[in-house]
Amino acid sequence: MTPSGNSGAAPLKSDPTTDDIPARPFNPHRCCASTAMTALVQDVLRFMEGYEAYYKKRKRRRNAAAQATYEATVEAVVCDLVHRQLEVLGGQVHVTQSHQILRSKSRYKGVALGKTLSDILKVMSAEEMSFITLTAGERKFTIKDQALNVAVSGKQTVLGSGSRLLRLIEGSCITFADIGRTPDEEVILLREPKQRDDKPGKLVDYADTEETPTLREQVQVINT
Fold first, then answer.
1. Closest by CA position to 126, among listed 204, 20, 202, 44
2. Within this chain, do residues 131 and 204 fall inside the same structural domain, yes or no?
3. Least confident stretch, 18-22, 69-73, 114-118, 166-170
4. pLDDT reading at 165 higher than 50
5. Does a structural domain hold residue 96?
6. DSSP 8-state class, residue 208
7. Pick from 167, 10, 171: which is nearest to 88 by CA?
8. pLDDT digits over 71-117, tens only?
9. Contact call for residues 169 and 202 (beta carbons, < 8 A)
10. Is residue 3 part of a domain?
11. Which domain of life is it from (predicted)?
12. What is the model's pLDDT at position 71?
């Protein structure tokens, strides 16, 4: 991990005119890129663990794989909301909570867009937590979401940074340099032929060959 940069961090406050700021699609591939961002996410996870224990939200502990998915999902949500807040004060993101999409498998959509996302968002938006604001299904978006490989239209959940997350951001001097991309983000994109010149072809799932891992490593090096 790289040290956190403390320069260039602007004061972050709730913006009363967030309804005028377009929400962008949630990016499930955000992750911590510094010790400062990791510490912030760990603070969020610690509070959420206490909430689950106090309200007895779980009958048994998550197994190792489920815990890793849980932590990666929280990390992606926090990192993308912090990133959005740095882009524009009061910035929001929108995300599907469609069970059909969240339970489907795709090499492109990332761990965070999984079946546990909805439950995680409920805890993060609980009054006692206030890490995120959540407006479910009241704003409409029609987008071609290339990451999900589906056309997402209609009402989507809108997420914003809650009061507690804003306080954590202000106290840690987080900048864009503290936020990275997950190493498992698919960088080899296979597409169908274009149907229109102004839009890319639909993403196609595929099986890895012997050459795919080497090609993926080469693309990752180029992208860094």
1. 44
2. no
3. 18-22
4. yes
5. yes
6. -
7. 10
8. 999 999 999 999 999 999 999 999 988 888 888 888 888 899 999 99
9. no
10. no
11. Bacteria
12. 98
| Terminal alpha carbon distance of the chain | 14
Are residues 154 and 74 both part of a single domain? yes
The β-bridge partners of 159 are 93, 134
Same structural domain, 79 and 95:
yes
Residue 164 lies in a domain: yes
How many other β-carbons are positioned within 10 Å of the β-carbon of residue 189? 15
Indicate the number of domains in the chain.
Answer: 2
What is the rounded distance in angstroms from the CA atom of residue 62 to the CA atom of residue 193? 43
Question: Do 67 and 103 belong together in one domain?
Answer: yes
Check whether residue 153 and residue 115 sit in a common domain.
Answer: yes
Query: Which helix (H) or strand (E) covers residue 95, if one does?
Result: strand 92-95
Are 191 and 168 within one domain?
no
Spatial distance between the Cα atoms of 112 and 73, rounded to a whole number of angstroms: 4
Residue 97: domain span = 18-181
CA dihedral (5, 221, 180, 85) positive or negative: positive
- Mean pLDDT of all residues in 16-42: 86
Q: Are residues 52 and 161 in the same domain?
A: yes
CA-nearest of 70, 74, 93, 66 to 32 is 74
Domain match, 158 and 197 both: no
Residues 1-17: pLDDT tens digits? 434 444 344 444 444 34
Report how far apart, in Å, the C-alpha atoms of 193 and of each of 27, 201, 202, 204, 214 are: 25, 5, 8, 10, 25
Q: What is the DSSP letter of 63?
A: -
Residue 10 lies in a domain: no
Closest alpha carbon to 102 in 156, 170, 50: 156
